[in-house]
From TrEMBL:
UniProtKB keywords: Cytoplasm, Repeat, WD repeat
Region Disordered, residue ranges: 1-82, 198-220
SMART domains per the UniProt record, alphabetical: WD40 (SM00320)
The protein's name: WD40 repeat-like protein
Gene Ontology biological process: transport along microtubule
Positions with biased composition (Basic and acidic residues): 1-27
Length: 637
């Protein structure tokens, strides 16, 4: 601010100096112009008065006597003296007009008399000796002025005339010139008929043009062989045919028995009531997608109940095909999948996003998390890098937790890491939890094979390991426990790796802490989870299962609770048997089962709880209808 003020003061001082210099120059100029005028104004004025008086006096005395200095006759003298006086007056007038100029101011009275001619230097202009009736006169002071002439156009005058404003009403039309009523009607009729004929002609012309246009459109356009080949080979045509054929196949997939006999409806219902309740509804298989591949995981869409997604491993007989495949099947499109996605490695886990129905998330054998979009192409739109910042071992568990506006993807791998990711940014995990158990012999890492969260729980979870034990883990520090693995409370009962872990759905609050585990030791076990808010134990303790289901003849790969019935769950084993268990009816044996003849790796219930999707080792996805077993009865509550 001080610097700015100094600059302003300097500018003001400079401006004042310029103004002072300008006033000084103006004052000097005025003195230069006024000094000669002031010194000689009085002398010039007296000389001019004398000159004018002498000229006027000579002109008055001219008729009485001739000029004393002239020669010749008196007539000639008067003429000559008149000519001389006129010339003298003209010279004096011109000299007086130019008094304001520098030349006039510089002239002396003698010079001025010489210019007039005949008036000697030093003489004065006065009246004649004989007397002057007019007396002496003073010479007026002449000044120069500037004038600007404006030329204004004359104002236009508008004159109104009565003849213009009024019509001549003196003459009246002749009665003979008026039209009769019949003549008026005839003329109106002719005008109407002319309009009708014009309208009819326009309508006929429009009809003719429309007929010609339809004829041109109906003409069959013949394509050349080159045009036909270019259309058939274009990608747009192939996409159009693929999309529209899907629509037609969905429309034709109508599950309606048009040969039904309504007179035998009661007998048919009675036969169905006594028959098998769980039956195969449809199956999905495509040689381009699932040939020589196994189904590794299944998941239904929460937004579209007819869509189910399946993950496949690599095909050892086709090294040029993608290692991993993901297919989205539609229950109304049985011959081919709705979408097909590719992966650079075997896809072990897959699921739809709970908050975006267009997003499919998968976990790969290489440790990458892949994200596909149904609106994009077959390749992943996002994927995690192959760096030490994420997983470096196969991912066997994925879970989306949170709400619509704030949700995260949790992944667990056999490298003992649980990572939290943002679905729109897979460059690096948001947080990483290392699960380590100090009691392990060779390494502290815990090889996680499955993971699940209880209902309305986003921090505490249960993990199943390859050693056959399950542990509770926390994402954050909480009262009585730290973040990481709780190694003192162990759910130890299996003697082989745990293949799946499933918490009870939130249909009954009393059973929200129950979960099932399946293992390669041919058993399925029912557990009650330790409350997450309870402080962790300070001494090692083993938690025993509530019940053991051992009616199996091979590895048990998966078990899932029914989403609508609190006491029903389904299991899949290596013999290909899909079993349905109802704990209210039998705790030892399943109430219904079907055998597909091939090992079943995964199963998934649809949201209404009426169908089960089972994935086999041969790449076939089978959809089973469970019938009334999924409907809760009053005695089940």
């Amino acid at each position: 601010m001080d610097h700015r003020k100094e600059e302003l003061e300097k500018k003001r001082a400079k401006l004042a100096e310029l103004r002072r210099q300008r006033e000084e120059r103006k004052r000097v100029t005025m003195q230069t112009h006024d000094q000669p005028t002031a010194t000689g104004s009085k002398t010039n004025s007296q000389d001019i008065d004398d000159l004018v008086d002498s000229l006027v006096g000579d002109r008055v005395r001219a008729p009485a006597s001739p000029l004393s200095t002239g020669t010749g006759t008196p007539g000639m003298s008067r003429e000559a003296s008149g000519i001389g006086r006129d010339r003298s007056i003209s010279a004096a007038t011109s000299a007086g007009t130019q008094l304001g100029s520098p030349v006039a101011r510089a002239m002396t009275p003698g010079t001025l008399s010489s210019a007039i001619g005949g008036v000697p230097s030093g003489s004065t202009l006065a009246a004649g000796s004989g007397g002057n009736a007019f007396g002496s006169r003073t010479l007026p002071e002449f000044k120069t002025c500037d004038f600007v002439i404006f030329d204004f156009p004359p104002k236009e005058k508008v004159v109104y005339n009565k003849e213009v404003q009024t019509a001549d009403g003196g003459s009246m039309p002749d009665a003979s010139s008026l039209l009769t009523e019949e003549e008026i009607e005839r003329r109106v009729r002719e005008l109407r008929e002319g309009d009708e004929r014009a309208r009819a002609a326009k309508e006929e012309e429009r009809t003719r043009r429309e007929a010609e246009a339809k004829a041109r459109e109906s003409e069959i356009k013949r394509l050349t062989d080159e045009q036909r080949a270019s259309i058939l080979e274009s990608s747009d045509f192939a996409a159009f045919v693929d999309q529209k054929s899907r629509v037609m196949e969905r429309a034709l997939d109508e599950d309606y028995d048009f040969m039904v006999d309504y007179t035998l409806a009661a007998t048919h219902e009675a036969e169905e009531a006594g028959g098998e309740k769980m039956k195969l509804a449809l199956s999905f298989h495509d040689d381009k997608v699932s040939r020589n591949r196994s189904v590794m995981d299944l998941a239904w869409s929460n937004r579209f109940p007819e869509l189910v997604v399946a993950a496949y491993n690599r095909n050892p007989m086709a090294p040029n095909e993608p290692d991993g495949m993901v297919a989205v099947w539609n229950t109304h499109l049985r011959e081919r999948p709705e979408f097909v996605f590719h992966a650079p490695s075997d896809v072990l886990r897959v699921s739809f996003s709970d908050f975006n129905p267009n997003i499919v998330v998968g976990g790969a054998y290489s440790g990458q998390i892949l994200l596909w979009d149904t609106r994009a192409k077959a390749q992943p739109v996002l994927k995690t890098p192959l760096t030490a910042g994420g997983h470096t071992h196969p991912i066997y568990s994925l879970k989306v937790v949170g709400s619509t506006n704030a949700h995260q993807l949790l992944s667990a791998s056999t490298d003992g890491l649980v990572c939290s990711w943002q679905l729109d940014m897979l460059a690096q995990p948001q947080e990483t939890i290392e699960l380590a158990h100090p009691a392990h012999l060779h390494t502290d890492e815990v090889s996680v094979t499955c993971m699940d969260f209880a209902d309305n729980e986003t921090t505490a979870f249960i993990v199943g390991t390859a050693e056959g034990a399950a542990y509770q883990a926390n994402r954050y520090d909480r009262a009585g426990s730290k973040a990481g693995l709780n190694g003192f409370d162990t759910y130890r009962a299996h003697t082989a790796p745990i293949n799946s872990l499933s918490f009870h759905p939130p249909i009954a609050s009393d059973f929200a802490d129950l979960f099932l585990t399946t293992s390669s030791d041919w058993t399925t076990r029912l557990w009650r989870a330790r409350p997450a808010a309870k402080p962790a134990s300070t001494m090692p303790s083993d938690i025993r299962p509530l019940h053991v289901f051992d009616a199996f003849e091979d590895y048990v790969f998966d078990a899932r609770w029914s989403p609508v019935h609190p006491s029903v769950f389904a299991s899949a084993d290596g013999t290909g048997r899909l079993a349905l268990w109802n704990l209210n009816q039998d705790m030892e044996l399943p109430v219904q089962w079907v055998n597909s003849g091939r090992a079943l790796n995964k199963l998934a219930w649809d949201r209404p709880g009426r169908r089960i999707a089972a994935g086999g080792a041969d790449g076939v996805v089978s959809i089973y209808d469970v019938g009334d077993l999924s409907v809760p009865r009053p005695e089940d509550h």
